[in-house]
C-alpha cells in the first residue's frame, strides 16, 4: 500500500531537519535551517507532482538538503570569526591576541597555496561531512577523498612546523 505524499513528507521531515541543523552548526551559517527544510520538501512535492521517478524519497531529500546547505554556504562564503569583537570581550592580553591573529594569517596563506579542489575538500570536511558524503558530492572515490585530505593536512603541518 502506497503512503500518501503528506505522510511521506511528515516522516522524512525530521531527518531533513537534522541534516540541515548539523550543517548549520558545523559551518556556523547564519539563517534558519527551517528555510532549507521547507525548500527541500517543496522540491520533493513538485518533483512527485511532475511525475519524476524517485526511488527513495528520504535519500533524495537528504542529498538535496546537503546540496542546498552547501550552495547556501558557498553564496555566503566561509564565516570568519569576528576577531576584533572577540578581542574586546574575552579578556586576552595583547600578545595572545597578536599570536592568534598571526596564526590565522599563516593558516590563510597556507590554505591559499593548496589547489582549489583540495581546499574545497577541506572545507567540506570542516563542515562535518563524512568522507562518503564528500565523495558523493565531489564525484570522487572515498579513498581518493581521504588521501587528498591527508596529503593536504601533511602539507599544512609542514608549513606550521617550519615557521
Total beta strand runs: 0
- Total number of helices: 8
- What is the makeup of the main sheet? none
Runs in which pLDDT lies below 50 for 5 or more consecutive residues are 80-89
Examine the secondary-structure arrangement and name the CATH architecture of the largest domain: Orthogonal Bundle
Return the string of H and E elements: HHHHHHHH
Broad structural category: mainly alpha
Helix content bin: over 70%
Strand percentage, roughly? under 5%
**Rounded Rg:** 20 Å
CATH superfamily of the largest domain: Winged helix-like DNA-binding domain superfamily/Winged helix DNA-binding domain
Tell me the CATH topology of the largest domain.
Arc Repressor Mutant, subunit A
End-to-end Cα distance:
65 Å
3D shape: elongated
* Name of the CATH class of the largest domain: Mainly Alpha
Total domain modules = 2
Average residue-wise pLDDT: 79
Task: Write up this protein.
Helix 1 packs antiparallel against helix 2 and helix 1 runs parallel beside helix 3 (57-76). The chain folds into 2 domains: 5-76, no CATH class; 86-162, Arc Repressor Mutant, subunit A (Orthogonal Bundle), CATH 1.10.10. The N and C termini lie far apart (65 Å). It has helices at residues 5-27, 33-49, 57-76, 83-89, 94-112, 116-126, 131-138, 142-162. The chain has 8 helices and no strands. The radius of gyration is 20 Å and the shape is elongated. Residues 80-89 have low confidence and may be disordered. The protein is mainly alpha-helical.
